[in-house]
Amino acid sequence: MSGQPPKVAVAHYCEGAGHATRMLAVVEELQAAGYETVLAGGGPGTKFVEANGYTEYEPLDVDFVGDFQGGGLLDVLRNSGPAVYERVSQYREWFDAEAPDLLVTDDISAAVAATLHGQRFVYVSHDPAEFYTTTVERAGAWLRNRIARRGAEEFLVPKVWSGDPSIPGAVDVPPMAPDGGAPEEDVDVLVVPSEFSVDADGLAEALAAKGRDVTLVGGDGWEIQESLQPFIAGADLVICSGYSTVMEAAVAGTPCIVLPATSEQRGVVDALADTPGFYAADSIAGVEALLDSVEAPEPHANGAKRIAEIAASYIPEPGPSGSDSPASAD
């Protein structure tokens, strides 16, 4: 490869910002190991990518959750279906332009594009079919996982919980979190709303009325941060909906109340039922009832490093002077 380090493409899904933050954690680990990285994904996560000093390729957005929950199967077929086709095509153009040695992705569109393109890839997902209750959603998760499992070099499942649910043929890894630096020590309750969430302002007001000091991500006075991990690590309690924040709380050892708003998030809550330090609420009143009874979990290992190590086993190691040598598989 003539003096250039191996290039790893990292692509995140475009629904919600959490997909970008978790894949940025993998980027950090790959770059620390000496690999060149290029990013893609788009959607709400782009602002976090840019806040960390990166630029990324932005293929057409897809909104399965919004189409399905806001309309139904017909809207999925009318809107998301054509969008996926275009997103896959754009990813293939990106592979041609970048010629990466390996792709690491949690985006099924990128996985489909890689399979069609002959691009080697490692897939990361926490999306068991058991998470879902409707036939359409369960079938969709089964199909996504089957497609990715057949084409991927490795299919990795970052899990906070132990045991089932998991994904047949996949390898469990610890939860993922970025390296956020020193904890912010003046955070009491950190509220991290997702794209699909309860009234975050109403929740913050209710917690303040209970005498809690609330930091609302995205609220008035909040400035976008390179990473939420220092705030999560320094908080006495985290309240969220998305699984990326759940994983970051697990790595930090911070108690977490989850307010699920989508089928996937409700599946995560069910999976966490026996996991110490994690609690479920279905309303603001439910959060208030839990405030005085939460306990911190034991900190989990950070799976981002493990994912980067597994990915690196499929490409040459960066040589000490720019030359590359083969990496041995684990």
Please summarize what this structure is.
The protein is an alpha/beta fold. The chain has helices at 18-32, 46-51, 64-70, 73-98, 108-117, 135-151, 200-209, 229-234, 243-252, 263-271, 284-290, 303-312; strands at residues 7-11, 36-40, 56-57, 102-105, 121-124, 154-158, 171-173, 189-192, 214-216, 237-240, 256-258, 278-280, 317-318, 324-325.
What does this structure look like?
The chain contains 12 helices and 14 strands. The radius of gyration is 20 Å and the shape is globular. With 330 residues, it is of the alpha/beta class. Mean pLDDT is 89; it is low at 325-330. The protein is 40% helix and 15% strand. The two termini are 23 Å apart. It has a 7-stranded parallel beta sheet, with helices on both faces. The chain has a 5-stranded parallel beta sheet with strand order 9-8-10-11-12, with helices on both faces. Strands 13-14 form a two-stranded antiparallel ribbon. It has helices spanning 18-32, 46-51, 64-70, 73-98, 108-117, 135-151, 200-209, 229-234, 243-252, 263-271, 284-290, 303-312; strands at residues 7-11, 36-40, 56-57, 102-105, 121-124, 154-158, 171-173, 189-192, 214-216, 237-240, 256-258, 278-280, 317-318, 324-325.
Query: What is the makeup of the main sheet?
Result: 7 strands, parallel
Helix content: 40-55%
- Our measurement of the CA-to-CA distance between the termini, rounded to an integer number of angstroms, reads 23 Å
Radius of gyration (CA) equals 20 Å
Please work out how many helical segments DSSP would assign: 12
